[in-house]
Amino acid sequence: MQPVEQNLIGIAKLAHQAPPLETKRTAEYRQLGSYSLLNRAPPHTPFFEWTINPYRGCEIGCKYCYARYTHEFMELRDPMAFEQLIFAKQWNPAAFAKELRRVRRGDRIAIGTATDPYQPAERRYGLTRSLLEVFAARHGYRLGITTKSDLVLRDLDLLQSVARTNQLTVHVTITAIDAGLARKIEPRAPRPDLRLGAVRKLAEAGIETGVFCCPVLPLINDSDAGISALAQAAKEAGARFLAGNTLFLRESAARVFLPFLDAEFPHLAGRYRARFAKGAFLHGAYPDLIARRFERARERFGFVREPSTRETAPWQAEDQLELFPEVDGAPGVKMSPA
Ligand code: SF4
């Protein structure tokens, strides 16, 4: 444990004081002291108003992971720290219930926007399961879970309970159905066939489930044929919706992803460097082309673009009577599927 630096404040101080829980070969787990679990989405986020990330960091360690910069808020500047130093947030059901009073009727809550809620740490600490137990006892919430892990199936019964009284969708992220490619770019994620199996079981259990292909990596997983094959596999597994977004590379993500390209896709490294030297996001013809490919795949295989907005059970209005004062949540993070 490194010494606590004198001038750290807020979440950085908590992170540097965090007691170790367990050390593995690839990752160390620590407990992050009391901090809000429910955070407001940044302004203008289109698909949800609130986020819940039960962990900080993610051991799955996707090479392109956009969320690495969230460790920088804790003064952990090495981008590899994001996948090596995992913080399990302290769980306090009473405090969480109080936080939920901030949610208004119709607000959408996204679980897993800057971490995977079913990453390996979840087997040990069960924070995502604890959250779901709270929602299973409530009604009227609009929830979305995003994951790359078939560990989500451990909670199938609980998810069904949540979905009985709330609007719940599960987004399973699959970037490629080629297992070799997936292993390269998402080294500790479950194989694509296992993720498709999770889609199948979730859909069979009546959970509204979709597939996210995020990110689309230029000249790596972006071919029309590849997107079409993924769409077909997702449809056969029972997914209802399909979406894909192009890669964006912030500096902390680029510090991992570009050396990865040097090693694994050296013929592409120079082109990526040139494109992303202009900014973290791709603009213009390329994202338009990818949007059209997904639109075609949706039409061909009969997907909808977004989850449905079916009526939920009546809103749990009694919890809204006492307004919880605004608290300063975790620093804003760019939201995108895990
Ligand atoms: S992209 Fe998602 S699953 Fe991959 S390391 Fe980042 S948070 Fe984890």
Q: How would you characterize the overall build of this protein?
A:
- By secondary structure, the protein is an alpha/beta fold.
- Helix content is 36%, strand content 16%.
- The chain has helices at 10-17, 81-84, 93-99, 121-125, 127-136, 156-165, 179-185, 192-204, 224-237, 251-264, 266-276, 285-301; strands at 20-23, 28-32, 38-40, 50-52, 55-56, 85-89, 108-111, 142-147, 167-173, 208-216, 241-246.
- Strands 3-4-7-8-9-10-11 form a seven-stranded mixed beta sheet. Strands 1-2-6-5 form a four-stranded mixed beta sheet.
- Strand 1 and strand 2 (28-32) form a beta hairpin.
- The longest helix is centred in the last third of the chain and has 17 residues, at 285-301.
- It starts with 9 loop residues before the first helix and ends in a 37-residue tail after the last helix.
- Mean pLDDT is 88; it is low at 320-338.
- Residues 58, 60-62, 65, 67, 115-116, 148, 338 line the site of iron/sulfur cluster (SF4).
- Iron/sulfur cluster (SF4) binds at residues 58, 60-62, 65, 67, 115-116, 148, 338.
